[in-house]
Amino acid sequence: MPSTVILWFRRDLRLDDNPALQAALIDCDRLVPVYVHDPDSEAPWAPGAASRWWLHGSLASMDQALQTFGTGLLIARGDALAELRRIVAATGATRIHWNRLYDPTTRDRDGRIKQALRADGLRAESHNASLLFEPWEIATGTGEPYRVFTAFWRRCGARLSDVGPLPAPTTLPPPPESPDSLPLENLALLPRIPWDTGLRETWTPGETAALEQARAFVQGRIQGYASARDLPALAGTSALSSHLHFGEIGPRRVLAMVREQWDDPTADPVETFVREIGWREFAHHLIYHYPHTTDEPLDRRFAALPWREEDADRLLRAWQRGETGIPLVDAGMRQLWHTGWMHNRVRMVVASFLTKNLRLPWQAGARWFWDTLVDADLAANSLGWQWSAGCGADAAPYFRIFNPVLQGERFDKSGAYVRRWCPELARLPDKYIHQPWTAPSALLEHAGIRLGRDYPAPIVDLKASREAALAAYEVVKAAGR
Ligand SMILES: Cc1cc2nc3c(=O)[nH]c(=O)nc-3n(C[C@H](O)[C@H](O)[C@H](O)COP(=O)(O)OP(=O)(O)OC[C@H]3O[C@@H](n4cnc5c(N)ncnc54)[C@H](O)[C@@H]3O)c2cc1C
After folding, report:
1. Above pLDDT 90, what percent of the chain?
2. CB 236 within 8 A of CB 228
3. CATH number for the domain that contains residue 429
4. Could you tell me if residue 428 is inside a domain?
5. Which among 264, 289, 314 is the end of a domain?
6. Whether residue 219 is found in the same domain as residue 320
7. Which of 60, 193, 295, 432 has its CA 20 to 30 Å from the CA of residue 166?
8. What pLDDT is recorded for position 481?
């Protein structure tokens, strides 16, 4: 009897450094690589529109890679357990392997599936492809999860040299007689109304592109990363976030590439970059240990924060559309809409603006990002929003309210980023590019701008809204007493 093994792909869409694949290959005569589309089981965090777009490309690329090995991806749709059972019955598989996910909805689902398949008599095993360390392996001296990044990363650092990637396979066993795969198009992941031009122009999903992107970054741009990473007009960062989210490349491979290229791991650009991979790791650590933080503040005092009630819908819409009248905020929101990605510095600015100047709940911002980011990741997004709102682990203190004008003048000095995404402001001189409302009217006229007609007047006064936010914070402080 040939030994038939199922490899259940999820957000680990790669052949390189794939522990589930390597485990599946042991004593395997027939391999069934499977993807089950089951968004209902991920509710309320089923992939958003931009993520679905990426997923389509990533699955196509995975299928193509498998076909070069004489096999292919068996795509199914429906309840994951029922579909896996159907494939087990049709193929006679006796083992199934997959790589773990750490967010609350998929974790519960996967636990139930593992139990059920084992009860059916199958060997079902899960592995770690997406993290450097399991969230339960890193703990404080008293066995508690970390809530402060520096201490967490110091603990990881001591063990960093132990982790390394697994190689990609050189051959794969053939598939058995299997049920037909659904055509990828049947998953309807691509938009019916084609709003995705900007995404197509900007990104190439898939493992090959991920490895190329990482290699190019590690061999080149990483040198200037420490300073360029804060300048949104430059392509100074790795742009690996979606590739990492979908598991087209793993953090162990990224780290290995860095090590191969750079002898000195403490060299400034290297350390700064690897530390960001550490933040990704920290985000997963937190979501694993504090699963409620997808919707509720980690710092419970913030449940008492009074959010704005009047005019909330209109202000949220203006923020989403990049029509707040604050150029750096609008540029960021338009970059997000057009490309499905936003520079980290600007993510912090737009999040601070939403939660503090507009006093709208961080959950509303997180939801918008969830639907529009190609790298939408429950762990990183929840951490990023809670950090910005001041209520998360190791968060920016609530009273630290980014001033988007000063942020623009510091990190987008020449206004190149704002000019790119808000072209109606392009003719303004640098001095006014981040605060057009302070420009003399003759100058505005000369630049072809009438505020309120060609570009919005600010929807809030930055100074007054800052003071209102600080006043609201008093309630949180009182709740903590
Ligand atoms: C409000 C807010 C929401 C965010 N939502 C997400 C999200 O949904 N998905 C996501 O991947 N990142 C999110 N981030 C973190 C960060 O903005 C992105 O990871 C980064 O901009 C991606 O660009 P890059 O790949 O060029 O990053 P690089 O600077 O090249 O960093 C390398 C990698 O490190 C990881 N990383 C970097 N910064 C962070 C961080 N602060 N937290 C966690 N991981 C990090 C990412 O995987 C990234 O690809 C959010 C940040 C904020 C402030």
Report:
1. 89
2. yes
3. 1.10.579.10
4. yes
5. 289
6. no
7. 60
8. 62
Other C-beta atoms closer than 10 Å to the C-beta of 392 total 24
Q: Tell me how crowded residue 86 is: count the other CB atoms within 10 A of its CB.
A: 15
Mean of the pLDDT values across residues 24-53? Answer: 97
* Alpha-carbon gap, residue 150 to 184, rounded angstroms: 43
The CATH number assigned to the domain holding 78 equals: 3.40.50.620
402 lines ligand 1 (CB under 6 A): no
* Ligand 1 contacts CB of residue 208 (under 6 A): no
Query: How far is the C-alpha of 92 from the C-alpha of 3, rounded, in Å?
Result: 9
Residues 346, 441, single domain; the answer is yes
Q: Tell me if 180 is assigned to a ligand binding site.
A: no
Which residue, judged by its Cα, is nearest atom 44 of ligand 1? 280
Cβ-based neighbour number of residue 289 at 10 Å: 18
**Protein residue closest via CA to atom 37 of ligand 1:** 276
Residues 122 and 144 in one domain: no
User: Residue 1: its pLDDT value, please?
Assistant: 77
Is residue 138 located within the same domain as residue 47? Answer: no
Buried/exposed 329-345: b ≥16 CB within 10 Å, e otherwise: bbbbbbbbbbbbbbbbb
Question: Are 62 and 147 contained in the same domain?
Answer: no
Residues catalogued as catalytic? 276, 279, 307, 344, 362, 385
241-250, 257-266, 355-364, 381-390: lowest mean pLDDT where?
257-266
Domain of 70, in residue numbers: 4-129
316 and 463 part of one domain: yes
3-state secondary structure of 74: strand
Query: Do 118 and 153 lie in a common domain?
Result: no
Return the half-sphere exposure (C-beta side, CA atoms, 13 A cut-off) of residue 362: 28
Rounded to the nearest angstrom, the gap between the alpha carbon of residue 32 and the centroid of all alpha carbons in its chain is 29
Name, of 206-220, 254-268, 385-399, the range with top average pLDDT.
206-220
> Is residue 420 a part of any domain in this protein?
yes
Query: Which residue type, as a one-letter code, is found at position 93?
Result: A
376 lines ligand 1 (CB under 6 A): yes
DSSP state of 12: -
Q: Tokens 């998360």 belong to which residue? A: 392
**Would residue 112 count as lying in a domain?**
yes
Handedness of CA 85, 87, 90, 91 (dihedral sign): negative
Q: How many domains does the chain have?
A: 3
In a domain, 182, yes or no: no
**19 and 132 in contact (C-beta within 8 Å)?**
no
How does residue 246 score in pLDDT terms, banded at 50, 70 and 90?
very high
Average pLDDT value over all residues in the chain = 95
Given 235, 259, 289, the domain boundary residue is: 289
What six digits make up the tokens of 140? 């404080």
Residues 333 and 458 in one domain: yes
The answer to whether residues 238 and 213 touch, using CB atoms and an 8 Å cutoff, is: yes
